[in-house]
Amino acid sequence: MADAVLFEFLHTEMVAELWAQGPDPGPGVSAGPRRVGGGSEGRDEKGRKMNLSVLEGMGFRVGQALGERLPQETLAFREELDVLRFLCRDLWVAVFQKQMDGQRTHHQGTYVLQDSSFPLLVPMASGLQYLEEAPKFLAFTCGLLRGTLSTLGIESSVTASTAALPTCKFQVVIQQP
Amino acid sequence: MAVCVAVIAKENYPLYIRSTPTENELKFHYMVHTSLDVVDEKVSAMGKALVDQRELYLGLLYPTEDYKVYGYVTNSKVKFVMVVDSSNTALRDNEIRSMFRKLHNSYTDVMCNPFYNPGDRIQSSGNLGISLSCRAFDTMVTSMMIQVC
């Protein structure tokens, strides 16, 4: 079944395309250098940060639509934990064809979702190689989680971290109103 | 046969509201507005009752002498309210449920349209991108108002 890899290829290209629009346009990109002001280091930093938030924004919009479509047949969610369980099971299965491995709750509305073999990181490496490249491959998924939570009525902020590829942890902090 | 169909966002403002006899539209707007209280009541009642089944379809919200009002809540707290004519006694619960399911499907399609910003009104504006799936939504609601489906 080639279905799973289609999204992986698309995601890889998305990251490559949006990342390359830094001060140093990569091959096949027609964007000019970004003029954010300051020295070249300042431009580099700001350009990179903006790219990550663009990726995250894309994930957010996709998450909003998925948050509407996926729970269509399920019954109404009664509490936060139901929603988190939905994320780990149904959302992950729909997007990555596997369930999330672990979910831990800290107090004050912080959840840590752990995936020991995250499908978008698996093709890259196993271990400590490319650790500094990992964040940009996780930005879209952070936005995805945030968007789905937002449609289901939970405002949150999601960050991701990797200790060793392909394990990664998503930290969901729920904003209290 | 629906006389009025409304889609209400989770912040309780209308995303879409349309009624067939176009005169006296205000009456239907008021009916939908008052039904929001009933919807909230039913949702909180469902939350307190320790029932395993938690349905999206809320059923008959309240009857008036001419009309009956039905409600449905999605998981994203978007409410659908439908007003039907009381004289049309042939309408069974199943048919209302299927009408709501169609509404939910069309609403999901509008949400998945990349040119639609969540929270905007669902209307066919001059912009071609938005109006395509909103037109489909409009057409679907029109078909619900002309005949029972």
From TrEMBL, chain A:
Part of the multisubunit transport protein particle (TRAPP) complex. Heterodimer with TRAPPC3. The heterodimer TRAPPC3-TRAPPC6A interacts with TRAPPC2L. Interacts with TRAPPC2L. May play a role in vesicular transport during the biogenesis of melanosomes. This is Trafficking protein particle complex subunit 6A. The gene is TRAPPC6A. It comes from Carlito syrichta (Philippine tarsier). GO terms for biological process: endoplasmic reticulum to Golgi vesicle-mediated transport. Residues 21-48 are annotated as: Disordered. It is found in: Endoplasmic reticulum; Golgi apparatus, cis-Golgi network. InterPro entries: NO_sig/Golgi_transp_ligand-bd, TRAPP_component, TRAPPC6/Trs33. Its main location: endoplasmic reticulum.
From TrEMBL, chain B:
Keywords: Cytoplasm, Endoplasmic reticulum, ER-Golgi transport, Golgi apparatus, Transport. Pfam families: Sedlin_N. It comes from the Eukaryota. Its main location: cytoplasm. The keyword Cytoplasm applies. It is found in: Cytoplasm, Perinuclear region; Endoplasmic reticulum; Golgi apparatus. GO terms for biological process: endoplasmic reticulum to Golgi vesicle-mediated transport. One of its GO terms (cellular component) is Golgi apparatus. CDD domains: TRAPPC2L (cd14854). Belongs to the TRAPP small subunits family. Sedlin subfamily. This is Trafficking protein particle complex subunit 2-like protein. It comes from Carlito syrichta.
